[in-house]
Write a structure and sequence with these properties.
single chain; mainly alpha; 57% helix; elongated
């Protein structure tokens, strides 16, 4: 990946995110990328297939 986003977060939030990523055996970038994808899915910017892959269920019609 070659695109970068720089964000500022509260030090406590960063520390917690690093702990979660480490516990999952991934790096912080992976955690943040997944969090962004999940938010995009919840806002319906991703396809149903992408939502399913992220564990986001469609609301019953």
């Amino acid at each position: 990946m070659s695109n970068h986003i720089v964000v500022r977060v509260d030090p406590a939030d960063k520390e917690l995110a690093v702990k979660v990523a480490t516990a999952r055996g991934e790096d912080l970038s992976d955690l943040v990328r997944r969090a962004i994808k999940i938010e995009l899915a919840r806002l319906s910017f991703l396809s149903p297939e992408e939502k399913k892959a992220l564990g986001i269920l469609e609301a019953p019609k």
